[in-house]
Amino acid sequence: FPAAPRVAVADDIATYFMFPPCVAVLMGCCDRGEHLEHDERVYLASFMAAEGWDPEEVIMRRFEHMPDYDAAETAKQVWFIVAKGYKPRGCKKLKEFNMCPGQCPRKSFRIENKEVVR
């Protein structure tokens, strides 16, 4: 787990306004090619899969800029998450695991317009 929650960057929140801050922060980190901890990657992949995103989009769009990206390993992990039907952690667990940047007024979140970020 991360040692401390990531700081919500205003640009990430503005760019990914349709996501809760915990997801927006991770999306921004991916865009910048920053390293994500394993649990952060699992959370992001499970969130996107639960929202109905195509697994190939999860792999290619989000994780290919990671400094330690391995296409085969990423595909294996994402398809495992999809096949097992992993559900994204809720707010309570994210807070327990230092993965909540705060600033979120909601306890659950559904994306209404996925086309905006594709």
Task: Note the main attributes of this structure.
single chain, 118 residues, mainly alpha, 6 helices, 0% strand
Could you explain how this protein is built, in words?
- The chain is about 50% helix and about 0% strand.
- With about 120 residues, it is mainly α.
- The protein has one domain (about 10-100).
- The longest helix is centred in the middle third of the chain and has 14 residues, at about 70-85.
- The chain is globular, with a radius of gyration of 13 Å.
- Residues about 115-118 have low confidence and may be disordered.
Quick rundown:
This protein has helices spanning 10-15, 21-31, 38-50, 55-63, 71-84, 91-96. It is mainly alpha-helical and 118 residues long.
The average pLDDT value, as a whole number, equals 85
Round the Cα radius of gyration to an integer and report it. 13 Å
Secondary-structure element order, as H and E? HHHHHH
**Low-confidence region ranges:** 113-118
Secondary-structure content class: mainly alpha
Number of helices, counting only DSSP H or I runs of 4 residues or more = 6
Overall helicity: 40-55%
Number of strands: 0
How many domains would you count in the coordinates?
A: 1
Largest sheet: none
How would you sum up the global shape? Answer: globular
N- to C-terminal distance:
28 Å
Measured by DSSP, the beta-strand proportion falls in: under 5%
SSE arrangement:
Blueprint: H1 10-15, H2 21-31, H3 38-50, H4 55-63, H5 71-84, H6 91-96
Helix pairs in contact: 3-4, 3-5, 4-5
